[in-house]
Design the sequence.
């Protein structure tokens, strides 16, 4: 039997970050995937975004933006706000919209694809850490809030996973990056996107019902505390 | 000898949260305190805010807002954004402004007064957890970023400390709250504001130079992991 | 296809704790399970214990003992030592024996079944917290030590999972315990042993290669930080 | 006024690790220090150890042993056990003896000097991580157990602090170690023992009553999560 048969699953920003890998695997496992490309809006545009969306068994809150790296003194207000506008505020809107509907239907799962950066603290990426840290803290709180309603909300806090936004092949294959890996990442490689998708699949399946509000580091041993 | 003699110290939003208690103790210890009441602005108004401010040895980034508690489905966009506008974005602006100046002068400390709520995950306070979680993650990253420049940036992640914003006396003395304390807070009491100020003083003193990027839970045993 | 086909898997103390549930599921998934009942010895008896054991793809280091609960002033030296003798020292011996063999054969996984108690700190169970905390800290360190050798060592730090040692059915069904659950465990139930076994299966499978040195809380939201 | 006037303070293994630095500072601050050199015994010898000791306001549980570093496959059973015999079991005995007496007298503090190694996971130091991890987990649990009795039990989980056991001057001054520092420790230096003693003094003072069961990383930004 396929592992996600009949499950209705929404993947946001499906053309970016972990969207393509998760969509591929979930399709292969017979999920009924709604892959919605593009940024998730916040504010008055959000109702339009969800208007023609049905209810789902699982929502993959996949939200990503260029990390705007650099020393904090060079950070522009606009870049800082953009990280919150694309990753943090829409995550709240998605959970506020879907979690109560899942509670009403008696079950559901939301899996946020976030980052391990805030678990460790990454100099030169303070803006990104702040935004991803807001996501992780939010997921922890709403995960507990919906725990008793058979809705499981968790996050995959990843780093060093091959994906077009943060780790394109060109970067990964460079000699400099390989040295960086050898020094910083205990497993000494980046994850294939399919490996991440397999963990997302585990969390999307009925086998993960005892996990709530949890932030799972997925980083080859780089960050192991959540 | 007094413990903060000659130290130039800025306290933001000095009329709220831990501002009054910290200002009182720091004055008594002979610090040269600049207590600046009111919200710290973000964006085009920030330069005005700091325009007549000199350089400081220590900045107490004391930022607070009503936590906008309630089930996530009742949370208004405006309330959510307000938490970020008052607590998260101004913290970035303060650090971006002061930390490089402290690096230039060869020393300095920034102490953010944040919350333990995101460490634990507080159902019904997801917005507050998200905003305070953003602060904690930001402090961790910039704390590491400035570590080698003799600038120490840390946070006091508190809860159950007597203060006019979150724990006014009336609330604390109610029978219901006392029961809540007995059940949830290992030390079974709220901290006096002076106790918190003493820890802030320790972090503001020269004795804390080996701490950087750290989020100190201060919550009577309620949250003990950071 | 079955999910563990051909995998040679050792389960220690297989008659206790999570041994039976994991053995059942792994058998059903076509693993070649060696279920070894009884305590794992330490010291001069350990070589006998492993003498007739082959090499394995996966070792489930399932070690359990009565938690010796009670106020610390009533704790007997013998009980304290017994927890270390049955759970901590044998875990080291198992890892010291099998991990280098796994490194030699080019792959392998060790999954320790530990506890979430030390993540949270459990008054009245300080001895148990100490012993399980030693296990978790050990797994974190050896997990990093073997990370680059394609050997993945992780722990499931569980609580509130139905099992004969800590949560027998009789206890779980009592009114008093149900009230305790409602107050302390966000999902308000204990996990079925099969749920735990499914997570152990995920970690035993080839899909978990990017996780090393990680302590996974598995406790229905009771402890969510590791 | 001196900061520890009239306080009766026991320092164990006072000739090693942080004992000398803490004793010096505490003496200077007018504490009535009982500095007891040598290993703390466990088992039948423990009653002799404490027999002529009075009650104390503060106990500094300073326990150290050579870390027995090396790959796990080379670790001898004896070395492994020695770490537990000298650091873990005596810590339990000290807390079991003193904490209830402190509860009876209505106040008291125990400060364990442990290590940050288990917070991070240190390959090549798995035995040391296990033993120090047991200590940290134990302190967390008994810290919560005595929280309501006005007895505060906490740990300083340090690394990279100058001391004769782990960081003798010769090692610290070597070129190799200085390179290691630059790469691994955000503040790029080891702490002077007096800096650590100042934090121990803060925890020993009446100003720290709101901290219980807490494991304070003290490592120049090397480990910042507890």
Sequence:
């Amino acid at each position: 039997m396929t592992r996600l048969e009949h499950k209705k699953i929404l993947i946001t920003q499906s053309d970016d970050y972990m969207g393509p890998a998760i969509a591929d695997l979930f399709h292969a496992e017979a999920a009924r995937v709604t892959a919605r490309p593009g940024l998730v809006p916040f504010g008055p545009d959000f109702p339009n975004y969800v208007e023609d969306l049905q209810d789902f068994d699982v929502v993959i809150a996949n939200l990503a933006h260029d990390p705007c790296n650099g020393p904090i003194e060079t950070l522009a207000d606009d870049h800082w706000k953009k990280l919150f506008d694309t990753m943090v505020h829409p995550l709240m809107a998605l959970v506020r919209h879907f979690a109560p509907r899942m509670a009403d239907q008696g079950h559901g799962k939301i899996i946020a694809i976030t980052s391990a950066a805030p678990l460790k603290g990454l100099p030169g990426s303070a803006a990104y850490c702040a935004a991803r840290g807001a996501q992780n803290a939010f997921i922890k709180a709403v995960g507990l809030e919906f725990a008793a309603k058979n809705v499981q909300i968790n996050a995959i806090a990843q780093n060093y996973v091959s994906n077009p936004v943060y780790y394109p092949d060109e970067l990964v294959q460079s000699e400099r990056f390989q040295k960086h890996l050898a020094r910083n990442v205990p497993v000494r490689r980046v994850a294939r996107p399919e490996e991440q998708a397999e963990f997302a699949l585990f969390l999307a399946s009925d086998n993960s019902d005892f996990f709530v509000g949890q932030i799972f580091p997925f980083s080859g041993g780089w960050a192991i505390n959540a």
Notes: Chain A has a mean pLDDT of 97. The beta strands of chain A are 8-12, 32-36, 58-62, 108-115, 151-158, 215-218.
